[in-house]
Amino acid sequence: xxxxxxxxxxxxxxxxxxxxxxxxxxxxxxxxxxxxxxxxxxxxxxxxxxxxxxxxxxxxxxxxxxxxxxxxxxxxxxxxxxxxxxxxxxxxxxxxxxxxxxxxxxxxxxxxxxxxxxxxxxxxxxxxxxxxxxxxxxxxxxxxxxxxxxxxxxxxxxxxxxxxxxxxxxxxxxxxxxxxxxxxxxxxxxxxxxxxxxxxxxxxxxxxxxxxxxxxxxxxxxxxxxxxxxxxxxxxxxxxxxxxxxxxxxxxxxxxxxxxxxxxxxxxxxxxxxxxxxxxx
Length: 281
Ligand code: PAF
Fold this sequence. Notes:
By secondary structure, the protein is α/β, with parallel strands linked by helices. It has two domains: 172 residues, Rossmann fold (3-Layer(aba) Sandwich), CATH 3.40.50; 91 residues, Pantoate--beta-alanine Ligase, Chain: A,domain 2, CATH 3.30.1300. It is built from eleven helices and nine strands. Helix 8 links the parallel strand 5 and strand 6. Helix 7 crosses helix 8 and helix 10 packs antiparallel against helix 11. The longest helix is centred in the middle third of the chain and has 16 residues. The chain binds pantoate (PAF). Pantoate binds next to strand 2 and helix 7.
């Protein structure tokens, strides 16, 4: 695996693939990799001749400086995992290379970024689209692979690609879970043992909702059901529940009559976790 720290080197490696007529899949990451990321790499390998990855803890998508500082990092471990998974090249850029001095350009999906989780984390999705647009321009991939766990992020990126005519296909990979159902996330490493055990309540609430939706409840009835499950767990706080149409993320006014995305976020200790599931009545 080629490890590049300079954007120019990474571009040169990719230009070599292109010259050989090979297609390229991109897996953008913020590092501290786990099996969920490896599922993205596996999918990327199915979709293109070459797989390239990026490891960049993107400062513009963190609201609080403390959250950014505490974000776990493990560069040596990450490189080993990517290499073993068959990634061809990885870029680990510096913040000043991605955001050059005097930088003044942002990319924002105005509607999708400022609803749901975007209201709880103002500026977060703007940071995501701004960095992903830059990474697309650097790597010029044919396809880029993202996890469904960050469901709103996935829809925001799809909207950006459509609106800005990026010649990139977006592939989505289902959430990878621990044996007890907890969605894999780099943030899980920051949970203390009690919070780690408690955090499974999110996936349990989603499983209950998946069954309950068969009775075609209204979105607010389903939300009450989820709140009752999560509310019974005293270690969960700041619960946010959004039940929206799966494709448009539009609100569901009456009974759930088609695919609905349930997006949850809750704090365990000081760690904000998210989980989601698309359910169909
Ligand atoms: O999902 C992530 O890890 C990040 O939001 C992404 C897409 C790599 C952008 O920084």
